[in-house]
């Protein structure tokens, strides 16, 4: 599948026998189009009766698989780099590839995304060089991409803060008159289950609702906020919160890239057509640590992890492609080789990332500068130059 | 040139109106800023004339006001947020110091947040708690924010326009006890001719001691100078106007002439702006000083009940006492 827009697959007019199913994995009202065993489900119903389906070409299926494998491999490389002391920290997306690739590929070129610090898969789908977030975690910058160019905002570390930014941006989209047609713009805000406890997220829900903002709240419920389980954040399924704020909510199998794509595309299209916000709860599991700083064996049991292992997003896509004879074995080998080569390339480039010149810490504090800061910069430069043989 | 006599409140209203007229991307947002015109009526009539997409009544949540304004700014708007009272800004504190202040830095200059956060601040109006605070040090301490405060109608009119036109995120502090004080305002002068936003100004020239004040205390300092003059002592009063960056150029020049300096603010003294100012003046003017730099400030208590606020707030007598002390060294 080409990077970008795989077509309006959810609005297929194809006359095919329809089977309406929901809750295929036993989770309540979980939209699913691909079972953990790799069985394709033709269509699935959301809690409000919306029918979700996708109609990808074989090439698009292969593209989604390639995305999943690549982002997992690049993520694994980053984890390894952290373990070897090359990154100060890494927030792994392991297990969440389908939620990120599915939603990321559902975005159209004109749509704007507001991520947390874990959305490396969405970043990849936006066409951003995967090395970009590594600068932040290596400590050489705070994220190097241009949010305006790629329509993908800076990573936000403070939990939930970006949901308000997304809401304001979406209000601006509406104020600019950029909704109401298929060419309309939509906005997506990423956050986790822990963030739903934050005031900012709840304020964002209120704002988006009363201003009818063209916004999709995309919650990756990966079951844990560092060590705290979902039960410490909520007593109701998260997607049901949307109802109290006055917009629709839906829970999707976040380990199913097809369903994640379908519900996100539908919600984005509703938003761009002027139908306001919605909440997607992508029900998934963080297979690794919250970040490389914590130890998940302290707070969760092996059997739980194993149960989720069986729902792996890549394995089920692989099973589907094989069963449907969409690919042959050489395809998987070719994708694996591409992922290996890209991760080696990533590693080489990370190791070559230079430390910034110390005096650059004074850059970009203010668009219009500050005399106080100019003086500090001058004094600090002079101080550095005072060392004999200094490189600075 | 049309010079009118306006209150500070009306001057701010006129400045906001000008900004809305001049740039279609300017939006005003806050609680009750629309039909009501704000609790102090600073936005009076603006929604009627510019519509509810330009003057936006928001839900009642301060973090939401600032956080959504960040998104609007990223989208290309120039939001002017009103926080209803000083003591209500704290729920928005995270958005202001962690997001508004740092977006430009974090993005290496690619994202600009040209935003103004208006806060009516300070005491002296007999209000209940949380309605009389002076939070300027919190914001001046945060790199990435600029902090200014006006002390008279002319500055209110031009500084609010300058702040809105600036790409820097600016905390704009309005001395609420001075909203009803009148002064001349040149309404038609081009903004480019206005006194620079980030520069202090001598409010009253003098030779014997320097009094530094800003916002609501400028009036108090000027009153003290008038009283001192009757006793034959000429005080130079400097209106700082800009708290971050601090412009002490005029202060250094003045203190080197007078040899004496008193800093006045309403906020508690402990780690207040006065501490920073005293330290810098000591570093810069050490050989000219005849006595230590003294501070006249609020006390290190929560803002007290209204019936004792006149005792809490620095007044003419406390300023003059401090000036006397600088002569006693």
From TrEMBL, chain A:
It comes from the Bacteria. Transmembrane segments: none annotated. Its cofactor is thiamine diphosphate. Residues 68-348 form the Dehydrogenase E1 component domain. Coiled coil: none annotated. Gene3D superfamilies: 3.40.50.970. InterPro entries: Alpha-ketoacid_DH_E1_comp, DH_E1, PdhA/BkdA, THDP-binding. Keywords: Oxidoreductase, Pyruvate, Thiamine pyrophosphate. Residues 1-26 are annotated as: Disordered. Residues 11-21 have a biased composition (Basic residues). This is Pyruvate dehydrogenase (Acetyl-transferring) E1 component subunit alpha. The lineage of its organism: Bacteria, Bacillati, Actinomycetota, Actinomycetes, Micromonosporales.
UniProtKB/TrEMBL annotation, chain B:
It is an enzyme of class 1 (oxidoreductase). PANTHER family: PYRUVATE DEHYDROGENASE E1 COMPONENT BETA SUBUNIT (PTHR43257), PYRUVATE DEHYDROGENASE E1 COMPONENT SUBUNIT BETA (PTHR43257:SF2). The keyword Oxidoreductase applies. Residues 6-181 form the Transketolase-like pyrimidine-binding domain. Transmembrane segments: none annotated. The keyword Repeat does not apply. Its EC number is 1.2.4.-. Keywords: Oxidoreductase, Thiamine pyrophosphate. Its cofactor is thiamine diphosphate. InterPro entries: THDP-binding, Transketo_C/PFOR_II, Transketolase-like_Pyr-bd, Transketolase_C. This is Alpha-ketoacid dehydrogenase subunit beta. The lineage of its organism: Bacteria, Bacillati, Actinomycetota, Actinomycetes, Micromonosporales. GO terms for molecular function: oxidoreductase activity.
